[in-house]
Write a structure and sequence with these properties.
- The structure is a homodimer.
- Chain A is about 35% helix and about 20% strand.
- By secondary structure, chain A is α+β, with helices and mostly antiparallel strands.
- Chain A folds into two domains: about 280 residues, 3-Layer(aba) Sandwich (Aminopeptidase), CATH 3.40.630; about 120 residues, Alpha-Beta Plaits, CATH 3.30.70.
- In chain A, α2 packs across α4, α5 packs parallel to α13 and α12 packs antiparallel against α14.
- The longest helix of chain A is centred in the N-terminal third of the chain and has 20 residues.
- The interface between A and B is large, with 82 and 82 residues.
């Protein structure tokens, strides 16, 4: 391992140059005029992978190509196989005027490399590729077979990935997928993300009179759908901040004391968190910490309200209808379909007879849990400690990462989420940056991970 | 009186022709291109009034002119003075395609005269003018001095009327104002409207995080302003359908048993009313009839709700803020300013510490009550009975009529509201019509009213 770490250290300046070259491609997948830039970016990556000794190819899709790069397979030896995922496409850089330097002209200031896509996700997966380069160039045998899958449509919903995984299911069968496309809680504090929340969406519309009514002529003798909606939705959350739908918590897997202890290690300052959000006071389910509330507990969120008159001044009407968009965040082992059924049934049950409820259930996404005490998770934690020189924390992510569900569903594989982004990396915002210490630590992580996973670490 | 009734009957066909001539003017006050039509219409009315023996003039305003027409004053005799109000401007006729005949080409079908403005308000005040013509042409002495004030801006908020009333305060000092610009509950069932509800408007905005937040990353650890708004507004109405604001009902003048008895005489069918409104079931404050609920009881109405995402599909956010537009309908003797204070205070009191409430109070309008047992109201009731041959009912109007408040405020005069419009007259809608039986009854009302008011009726 020493030769690998030496190689990484000795070549750090070149690795930074290569990241700059990679970031220069304006590979904005959401903007059709960048189609050629995405192709050129993918091609650069393919050539780079070939140059360091990987077997690389571009796989066309109905959208942007996927770069597939494999370590050379050694005959006869049956090594464990892992897929490493990343994406070379980036978010749109707009608004340009808020950038301190051009988004596709990388600029280094201190230990930050500024540029669109530097952190999300070019820098993060290039670190893994650099680690493998170190193995290949120093003649160190990799204890695992690896396949890099670097797609070009992550920022537009990974439209072609599921189809690709299905087609290559045989080739991509693996022990697990490794992804560095998320965050760590603070500089120098590495983290393994082992659980994600799921989501389920619905929309409710309460319909009263067949047109907006004059509130003077009719008001008082007919229910107001906006008031009925408020009174209905108000009952969906109780005084303890819990979702007041019967059966809602039935399948929730309780946090273990190990998990709660790990989550309690995460840095948190209520005052600065409230200031960051701009709220006068924090709020959440009683009996849980903020970290638990936002990542390990289910929620019922109103995403939008619409009713009646919304313009300037006032309009004296009883609105004909009122509607709300709702998403429910789910935790393991809640099932989106079952939860949608329960919520719909409860809303219908509580709906007063003076209005008609129209409830449309929408998309759902499974929550995800990868046991943090599993051998692979423990291996990931050890590799993080080696790379960063500090005990990593365990993280749950409050949002969902659809590709993780795809890997599970199509490949049957769990995902090790080893994020390298810092909270202030400005992913999706102007002045995105990637921390060069994290870039280097990411390479050390990529170096340490494979022996840990293969069980051949010293 | 017989000669007057004979005159009215003998000239009915001509009166209908004159109403047709009057309706032909497209006096649409809301549309600038009709300015000359309004002028021509006002001029026609002035000439008509002069032709029948009134002293008439056009009074210019910053908007459309007001037609002022007085009965000739007899020297030395001090008769009671009444103002008769009407308006010659009309609502826009659009959408044209829904009219069965051209809106400004009057058409008679059965006992209905179709045309924009026929009912609202040309036919109604012309009936009063015709009655006065009968007095003047038959040489019958009018027991009252009358001044007709026919404005041209009622449909655009009577923008010049208050100023005009202030300028002419001396000339217009009167016992009361007579207005036929509203409705009766059913064909053949005359009504005196003696009370109006007032109104008070406010807007509440609950502000949470300083931007829309990702509901996955932050949801659960911060309050949702849309939910907070629902839970706050839900508390404004109790299970009995009453406004749950402390002190809200303190000043409400209870309905007398005479009033309740009168309101109970109004025709009402819950099933057909619910069908007309298109609601599955009616709703209202317990212990009160629908007529009472919609005209004699105060309400708290949400006129509009706005929060977060309102487009297609779903957006997984915790919205930064949520707002509601609210109007409160008031009944005698509630004061708009006091009620706004109480509502605002209560909302602030109940607002959770996790969001900031921004409450803007808006316009207010006084409720109005003209005692139905007062001599003038009783005189109006007797005149209605004479004109229609049937015992009139007493009505409260759930909306407000701003000019009534202006007459009270500026002239110190109460208003006798003697509406001649039928519920299906389509005021403000395509195919507006005026019932010719009501036109004739309106003339008989105009004939009978002045002796009743002066106390000289047989």
């Amino acid at each position: 391992m020493n030769s690998i770490r030496d190689y990484l250290a000795a070549n750090e300046a070149r690795f930074v140059d290569e990241l700059c070259a990679y970031v220069r491609f304006p590979s904005v997948s959401a903007q059709p005029n960048h189609r050629a830039d995405l192709q050129a970016c993918a091609d650069w990556l393919r050539q780079h992978c070939q140059a360091i000794g990987l077997e690389a190819s571009l796989c066309p899709t109905s959208g942007h190509p996927i770069v597939l790069a494999r370590t050379p397979r050694s005959r006869g030896r049956n090594k464990p196989h892992y897929v490493v995922y990343g994406h070379y496409d980036v978010q749109p850089p707009e608004p340009f005027e808020l950038w301190k330097s051009a988004p596709f002209e990388p600029r280094i200031e201190g230990r930050s490399l500024y540029g669109r896509g530097a952190s999300d996700n070019k820098g993060q997966h290039l670190a893994h590729i650099n680690a493998v380069e170190a193995y290949l160039r120093t003649g160190t045998e990799l204890p695992c077979d690896l396949t890099f899958v670097i797609e070009g449509e992550e920022e537009v919903g990974s439209r072609s990935l599921a189809e690709f995984l299905k087609e290559r299911r045989q080739d991509l069968r693996c022990e697990a997928v490794v992804v560095s496309d998320n965050g760590m809680p603070a500089p120098g504090l590495p983290a393994l993300t082992y659980a994600l929340r799921g989501v389920a969406a619905l929309e409710i519309k309460l319909v009263g009179p067949n047109r907006d009514l004059h509130s003077g002529i009719f008001g008082g003798s007919v229910d107001n759908p906006a008031m009925a909606l408020c009174q209905l939705l108000a009952q969906m959350r109780d005084r303890r901040g819990r979702v007041a739908v019967p059966g809602f918590y039935d399948d929730v897997l309780p946090l273990t004391s190990y998990e709660r202890k790990q989550l309690a290690r995460l840095p948190f300052n209520a005052k600065s968190y409230a200031r960051f959000l701009g709220v006068p006071q924090l709020y959440g389910e009683r009996g849980h910490t903020s970290w638990e509330q936002r990542s390990a507990r289910p929620t019922f969120e109103i995403n939008g309200l619409t009713s009646g008159y919304q313009g300037e001044g006032s309009k004296t009407i009883v609105p004909s209808w009122a509607s709300a968009k709702i998403t429910v965040r789910l935790v393991p082992n809640q099932q989106p379909a079952r939860i949608l059924r329960l919520v719909k049934k409860h809303l219908e049950h509580l709906c007063p007879p003076t209005v008609r409820a129209e409830i449309k259930t929408g998309h759902g996404g499974q929550p995800y849990l990868f046991s943090p005490t599993s051998p692979a998770a423990q291996a990931g934690l050890r590799a993080l400690k080696t790379a960063f020189g500090r005990d990593p924390v365990l993280l749950r992510e409050g949002g969902s990462i659809p590709i993780v569900t795809d890997f599970k569903r199509i490949l049957g594989a769990d995902t090790l989420l080893l994020g390298l982004a810092l909270p202030d990396d400005n992913a999706h915002s102007p002045n995105e940056k990637f921390n060069l210490d994290n870039y280097a630590a990411g390479m050390r992580l990529g170096a340490a991970l494979w022996p840990e996973l293969a069980g051949t670490a010293a």
